[in-house]
Amino acid sequence: MLYNVKEDTLDIGxxxxxYAAFGSGEEVMxxxxxxxxxxxxxxxxxxxxxxxxxxxxxRVYIFDRRKMIPENYTAEDIAxxxxxxxxxxxxxxxxxxxxxQGGMAAQYxxxxxxxxxxxxxxxxxLSRTNDVVRGAVDEWLxxxxxxDLDGLVISSMKYNYPPERLEKFKLIMPALVKAGHxxxxxxxxxxTKACLTCETYDRLDEIKCPVLVIGDKQDRIATPEASKEIAxxxxxxxxxxxxxxxxxxxxxxxxxxxxxxxxVEK
Length: 266
Fold this sequence. Notes:
The protein is an alpha/beta fold. The protein has 10 helices and 8 strands. It has helices at 44-50, 75-89, 101-112, 131-146, 149-160, 163-166, 173-179, 185-193, 224-234, 252-261; strands spanning 6-12, 15-22, 27-32, 58-63, 94-99, 117-123, 211-216, 237-241.
């Protein structure tokens, strides 16, 4: 089967966690995605194509958030879910990338479960809450509470992409908006609130593995300053893209830099 794609569900300690896996490499790579209006289930082949440059070196695993999101859900809870899933599959010493909210969780994963993380990439993320992310979260929660799902998708895209990139989606925007509606608004709201729970800044020196931080100069959710302060506190490499916004992780430049850091041959 092309890219050796597998989708499955893990039932661990009362949690049900979907994941997708692909690639034929001997090493392990774990991707922790950011807050999303859509779930991982059913996207395995699409993800494999998107990240095909990693498939020769790695067996890649992408873990979704647990089903039935509880109240007072946190970024640390996400990290513990990923750790439980990795342990259930016998995965350790992995190259881990976390973007946005997934980057928040990835920090907790490296702090609390260092044996699971060989190298770490933190993309367009933060280590402590700021007013910019708080403003975005408040807007999304307000739209979700009103049931304005069209507005929620449009707002998410507005924050993720600079105006010039949004313009490219103009003709297909109505289709993107309808396709982007979350199926479970309450769970989405609880996941959204978790964006305000990351407070790892004072614990960053507990991360001992090599780290690469990637930010974007037009990030309107985490902010470019948040990426810079993580790298400064860790004393690690910082790479800033120029004009992709918070959605920089969708771009070839971003993933080429990740591949270089993880030792993927061109």
